[in-house]
Amino acid sequence: MSSKVDGIVPSAVDVAVCGAGPVGLTAAALLARRGLTVAVLEKNASTSDEPKAISIDDEALRVFQQAGIVDAVLDIVVPGTGTRYYDSSGAPLFHARGAWPMRFGYPFKNPFAQPDLEKVLVKTLGALPNVALCFGTEVTAVEQTTECARVRTSHGAQERDLDAAYVFGCDGGRSAIRQMHGVAMSGRSHSEVWLVVDTTGDPHTERYAMHHGDPDRPHVIVPGMNGRCRYEFRLFDGEGEAGVVPPFDLIRRLLSHYRTVEPEHVERAVNYRFNALVADQWMVGRSFLLGDAAHMMPPFAGQGLNSGIRDAANLAWKVADVIGGRLTPAVLNTYERERRPHAAATVRLSEQLGQIVMTTSKRVAQRRDSLIRLAVDTTEGRTYLEHMRYRPPQHYTEGLVIDTHHAHLVGVPVGQPLVFDSAAHRLGRLDDMLGDGWAMLGVDLLEDEWSGLDQVISAFDAATATVTTRDILPHTGRRVLIDVDGALRRELGGYSGRFVLLRPDRFVAAAWLPPHSPAISTQLLRWSAHSLAVPAAI
Questions:
Q1: Residue 337 near residue 344 (C-beta atoms within 8 A)
Q2: Of the four, 85, 332, 380, 501, which is 20 to 30 A from 165 by CA?
Q3: CA nearest 406: which of 479, 319, 491, 495?
Q4: Is 426 helix (H, G, I), strand (E, B) or coil?
Q5: CA dist., res. 482 & res. 475, Å (int)
Q6: Torsion over CA of 460, 464, 470 and 473, rounded to 10 degrees?
Q7: Interatomic CA distance for residues 437 and 431, integer angstroms
Q8: Strand, helix or coil at 112?
Q9: Pick from 153, 240, 225: which is nearest to 192 by CA?
């Protein structure tokens, strides 16, 4: 299969990814990492030159690590420190940084330019023999059978059909894939108009976003790399309409408080209305919706792109395990069940932040400032705000999780602290030590307690390790992961005395005491393609 960016559509692949934005390219990278053949179909002739998304969080960088491309991505990001919020008069209120620095192995919130990211992803994917990058290729129809999805494409005057086991619709808010399947979106579009301007040669050097809650002119500033900076300003009646190119005089006036700007400093300037929408259905047969095709949100939580990357991280390994014969196809129904609640909650948070932080009511702004000052004067309130505990947690209560009456232990992500691997005799991040697939961990357990788990370990092709959260080195022939700075103990100390089955996306699928291994094994094997005779409870 061709790996050049040449528009030549192969006749068959494992997955057709429709859309070559950051979400589609990330999904392709994750699928290719797992050995699948992938065609990326993009109607535009090249990647975008518009810096739309501007922030990658630590969870997204972890996903790029899982795709094997994080080092290339780190070349184009600023290691960020979160968001600073300002009151009505421009005084700082608090700085939101997250609870645990580097919990997922990377800085918390990282400015970047979307064109740079897309170029890095295309360059990386273009070097892979199992990926075809087909620019200038429009998807005109998707026809599904019980065996495959037939994707009809048009490249200039040439029409070509592509058979794929699955189709990923990563083609943005106006998704053609979503429309082809007749899927509607629920929610609302906001009437407020915002000017978004991306500039170069900017004097800002901060490594954090700045949200200014000035009711006279709510605005956001996000400095980037090498003098890039994004400004977002709320517009008022008579200043501009959505979709209309803003006049340079308006840009100059709004930026004058921060810098002198000339036309050559403006990379992009647009007037936007923000949407808060979620697709009514994320899976139609063999087709899936990801990113803006599945959900759109205002930018005030900085989670639009990051939510799309979470979609890719949730779905790619499931599809790979189904195609690879490890999981039954029924598990693909869990994609929407797991991702929709968190995406919808993030959409709501983005709306709420816009209404509260970016209010144009002086009365609401004064009340907001007073309440926040009262909160930050208390330990509990400061922790709530600075650790961003107002963000919806990622916690799967249904899907590929086993409920063992300890709901707080399952369906949650495990961070990736530095650990020492007794078998490899080296120090490294947890994900690198465990590899790309499933992992079975015995936390502070003895070797004889592993009996009876061989079938599960084999069915999921799971890596295994003993984890010690104590200051001991167990006598065992099994690999031992050792805490080196307290972070591994913090992540897994609550699981002491239990087995923990980690999914490839590093969410906890199950956690149980050794006497419960037979019952848990029976439930887990219902997910396995090797046990299709057992009724699936998914």
A1: no
A2: 501
A3: 495
A4: strand
A5: 13
A6: 170
A7: 10
A8: strand
A9: 240
Q: Which pLDDT value is given to residue 346?
A: 96
Strand boundaries in 115-193, DSSP class E: 131-135, 138-144, 149-155, 158-169, 185-189
Q: What is the DSSP string of 278-298?
A: EES-SEETTEEE-GGGTEE--
| Helices and strands per DSSP (H, E), number in the chain | 14, 27
Per residue, the 3-state secondary structure of 310-358, as one string, reads HHHHHHHHHHHHHHCCCECHHHHHHHHHHHHHHHHHHHHHHHHHHHHHC
Angle formed at CA 426 by CA 421 and CA 431, multiple of 5 degrees: 60
Helices (H), 390-527: 430-434, 454-459, 487-492, 517-525
Tokens describing residue 517: 């291994």
Q: Are 106 and 397 in contact (CB under 8 A)?
A: no
The closest of 195, 188, 197 to 224, measured between CA atoms, is: 197
Give tens-digit pLDDT for 464-493.
999 999 998 888 889 999 999 999 999 999
**pLDDT exceeds cutoff 90 at 534:** no
Q: φ, ψ for residue 153 (rounded to 5)?
A: -125, 155
In this prediction, residue 235 has a pLDDT band, given cuts at 50, 70 and 90, of: very high
The answer to whether residues 443 and 512 touch, using CB atoms and an 8 Å cutoff, is no
How far from the centroid of its chain's Cα atoms is residue 67's Cα?
12
Q: How many residues does the chain have?
A: 538
CA distance linking residue 184 with residue 278, whole number of Å:
9
SS3 300: helix
Euclidean distance between CA atoms 499 and 462, whole angstroms: 13
Please state, in angstroms and rounded to a whole number, the distance separating the CA atoms of residues 4 and 26. Answer: 17
436-456 confidence digits (pLDDT tens): 999 999 999 999 999 999 999
Over the stretch 40-63, which tens digit does the pLDDT of each residue have?
999 999 998 887 899 999 999 999
Q: C-alpha 321: how far from its chain's center? A: 20
Here the tokens at position 484 are 């080196």
End-to-end CA, the chain: 35
Confidence grade of residue 89 (pLDDT, cut at 50, 70, 90): very high
Per DSSP, what are the bridge partners of residue 421?
Answer: 426, 481
- Cβ neighbors of 126 (< 8 A, separation 6 or more) are 3, 4, 5, 133
Q: How confident is the model at residue 157 (pLDDT cuts 50, 70, 90)?
A: confident
- What is the chain's mean pLDDT, rounded? 94
**Phi-psi region at 17: left, alpha or beta (left = phi > 0; alpha = psi -120 to 50):** beta
C-alpha 510/C-alpha 409 separation (Å) is 8
- At 5 the pLDDT is 55
For the packed helices 58-66 and 304-323, what is the interaxial angle rounded to 10 degrees? 30
Rounded to whole angstroms, the Cα distance separating 83 from 97 reads 7
Per DSSP, which regions of 30-119 are E strands? Answer: 38-42, 55-57, 83-86, 92-96, 109-111
**Which position has the token pair 């990330």?**
26
Query: pLDDT grade, residue 536 (50/70/90)?
Result: very low
